[in-house]
Design brief:
This protein is an all-alpha fold. It has one domain: Up-down Bundle (Sodium/glucose cotransporter), CATH 1.20.1730.10. The chain has 18 helices and no strands. Helix 5 crosses helix 11, helix 8 crosses helix 14 and helix 8 packs across helix 15. The longest helix is centred in the middle third of the chain and has 49 residues. It is globular, with a radius of gyration of 22 Å. The N and C termini lie far apart (63 Å). 56% of the residues are buried. The model has no long low-confidence stretch (mean pLDDT 80). It catalyses: L-proline(in) + Na(+)(in) = L-proline(out) + Na(+)(out). One of its GO terms (cellular component) is plasma membrane. It comes from Qipengyuania pelagi.
Length: 491
C-alpha cells in the first residue's frame, strides 16, 4: 500500500521541482522578476496563490483536529477568517496594488512603508524587516511540523534508515523540496506551485468528507448524531462558548491585513482592473476549502467513534482517514494535498523573508549598488538560511501546528494590520506613527504570550493575543500621528 503512495508523492515532488525550473527560465533575471514575477500574475494564479499560501497545514491538520476534539464551536475560527479575507480583498488589495507601484515601485512591504513615510524610511525598513524575519521563521517552523507529522504518522518505519526519526526525516524532505523550487524559480515558481497546490487542496477537501460519510463504514447513517448524543453540544456553534472565546476565535480574521506573504500577492496582480476578478476566485476557493475542512473534522470524529479508532493526536485525523479509506494512489494524492498546504505556505514565507533580508538589509546597509544578479543570488542564500533556522525550531515532535501558527499570525496581524490599513487609507498618518504602531503591535503580542494571558486572562479564560495587539497598534498610530502633526501623505 505504502509503495503506491510513495510513488504518487514522488511524482508530486517532481512536478513542483519542474515548475521551479520553468520559472527559473522565465523570471529570475531581475529583483522584480525574482520577488514579484514582474508584477504580471494572472488573477487566477494570484488568487489561488494567496489562498494556498494562507491556508498552510492548519487547514488540513489544525482546523480539522480542533473540530474533531471540541466540535462545531471551533468553526468560529473559519468564519472569522472568511470575513477577514473578504475585508482584506476589498480594503487592502486594490489600494496596495496601486500605491506600491506609484510609490517607487516597491518590491517588499518594508520598502513600500519606507517610500510612504520617507522621514522614517530606514527605521521602518529595519524594524519591519526584523518583524518579518522573526515571525516568519516561527511560521515556517509550523509548516515543517506538519510535514514531520505526516511522515511520522503515514510512513513510520519504512523510510530509509538514516539514524534520525521519521519525524525529522519528514521535516528535511519537506524543507529540501520547497528549497529546490523556491531558490531556483523565485516568486513565479512559488505562485505557480501555489496555484497547482490550491487545486489539489480543494479537490481533496471536497473528496474526503464525501467518502468518510458515504463510503464503507461511513457516517451518513446517523453516526454524527451518535457523536452528538455521546458528547452534548458537539454540533452546536454556541455550546460552551464564552464571550472571550468567541472574540478570540472570530478575531483571527484581523490577521489578514498584516500577513506579508498574502498581501504581497496583491502587489503582483497584472493590473488594478484584475484585482476584482482575483478576489472573486480567491473567496470562492476559500469558502469551499473551509467547508471541506469543517467536514473532515466533524465527519472524521463520527467515523472514528463508529469504527473504534482512537487518536493520540487529533491533528492527524486527515492523515489517518487518507490511509484507511483510499487506494494507495489516491492516498498519495491526499497526502500530496496536505503537503501542498504545508509547502505553499512555507515557500511564500521563505521568499518574503528572503526578499526582506535582501532588499531591507543587504542592499540598504551592505551593498547599496548591488547588481540585479547579485541581489537574486543573495536572495537564494537567505531562503536557505531562514529554512535552517525554521528546521531547528520545528525539531520538537510535540509541537502543535495550530499553536505555532496562532502566535505568528497574531504577531503579523497586530504589527502590520493597522499599519497597512491606515497607510493606505489615512493621509494624515506620519512616519513616527507608523514606527510606533509597528513596535507596539509586536511588543504587545509578545508580552501577552510571555505572560500567558492568551490562555489565562480572566477567570481561567484566555484572550487571543491579536486582540490587544491590534487595538494597541491602532491607537499608537493614531495618537502618535496626531501628536507629530499629521501632514498629508505625498501625492
Amino acid at each position: 500500500m505504502q509503495t503506491g503512495t510513495l510513488i504518487t508523492l514522488a511524482l508530486y515532488f517532481l512536478l513542483m521541482i519542474g515548475i521551479g525550473l520553468f520559472a527559473w527560465k522565465r523570471s529570475t533575471d531581475t529583483s522584480e522578476g525574482y520577488m514579484l514575477a514582474g508584477r504580471n500574475l494572472h488573477p487566477a494564479v494570484a488568487a489561488l496563490s494567496a489562498g494556498a499560501s494562507d491556508m498552510s497545514g492548519w487547514l488540513l491538520l489544525g482546523l480539522p483536529g480542533a473540530l474533531y476534539a471540541a466540535g462545531l464551536v471551533e468553526a468560529w475560527i473559519g468564519i472569522g477568517l472568511f470575513v477577514g479575507a473578504v475585508a482584506n480583498w476589498i480594503i487592502v488589495a486594490p489600494r496596495l496594488r496601486q500605491q506600491t507601484e506609484e510609490l517607487g515601485n516597491a518590491l517588499t512591504i518594508p520598502e513600500f512603508l519606507a517610500n510612504r513615510f520617507p522621514d522614517k524610511a530606514k527605521t521602518l525598513r529595519v524594524v519591519s524587516g526584523l518583524v518579518i524575519v522573526v515571525f516568519f521563521t516561527v511560521y515556517t517552523a509550523a509548516g515543517l511540523v506538519g510535514g514531520g507529522k505526516l511522515f511520522e504518522t503515514a510512513f513510520a518505519n519504512i523510510l530509509p534508515a538514516t539514524g534520525m526519526s521519521d519525524y525529522m526525516m519528514g521535516i528535511w524532505i519537506t524543507a529540501l523540496v520547497v528549497l529546490a523550487y523556491t531558490m531556483v524559480g523565485g516568486f513565479l515558481a512559488v505562485s505557480l506551485t501555489d496555484f497547482v497546490q490550491g487545486c489539489i487542496m480543494v479537490v481533496a477537501l471536497v473528496l474526503m468528507p464525501l467518502v468518510v460519510m458515504f463510503g464503507p463504514g461511513g457516517t451518513a447513517g446517523g453516526s454524527i448524531e451518535a457523536v452528538a448524543a455521546s458528547q452534548p453540544g458537539f454540533l452546536s456553534l454556541t455550546q460552551g462558548l464564552t464571550f472571550l472565546g468567541f472574540v478570540s476565535a472570530v478575531t483571527w480574521g484581523l490577521g489578514y491585513f498584516g500577513q506579508p506573504h498574502i498581501i504581497v500577492r496583491f502587489m503582483a496582480i497584472s493590473s488594478l482592473e484584475k484585482v476584482k476578478v482575483a478576489r472573486n476566485i480567491g473567496l470562492a476557493w476559500m469558502g469551499v476549502a473551509l467547508i471541506g475542512a469543517l467536514g473532515v473534522g466533524i465527519a472524521g470524529r463520527a467515523y472514528a467513534q463508529r469504527n473504534g479508532i482512537v487518536l493520540d493526536d487529533p491533528e492527524t485525523i486527515f492523515i489517518v482517514l487518507s490511509d484507511l479509506l483510499f487506494h494507495p494512489l489516491v492516498t498519495g494524492f491526499l497526502f500530496a494535498a496536505l503537503l501542498a498546504a504545508i509547502m505553499s505556505t512555507i515557500s511564500s514565507q521563505l521568499l518574503v523573508s528572503s526578499s526582506s533580508l535582501t532588499e531591507d538589509f543587504y542592499r540598504l546597509f551592505l551593498r547599496k549598488h548591488a547588481s540585479e544578479r547579485e541581489a537574486v543570488n543573495v536572495g537564494r542564500v537567505c531562503v536557505a538560511l531562514v529554512a535552517v533556522a525554521a528546521i531547528w525550531i520545528a525539531r520538537d515532535p510535540n509541537s502543535e501546528v495550530l499553536g505555532l501558527v496562532a502566535n505568528a499570525w497574531a504577531g503579523f496581524g497586530a504589527a502590520f494590520g493597522p499599519l497597512i490599513i491606515l497607510a493606505l487609507t489615512w493621509d494624515r498618518m506620519t512616519g513616527a506613527g507608523a514606527v510606533a504602531g509597528l513596535l507596539t503591535g509586536a511588543a504587545v503580542v509578545g508580552l501577552w504570550i510571555a505572560l500567558g494571558l492568551n490562555s489565562d486572562f480572566i477567570n481561567g479564560q484566555g484572550l487571543y493575543e491579536i486582540v490587544p495587539g491590534f487595538i494597541a497598534s491602532w491607537l499608537a498610530i493614531v495618537l502618535v500621528s496626531k501628536a507629530t502633526g499629521g501632514h498629508k501623505a505625498p501625492a
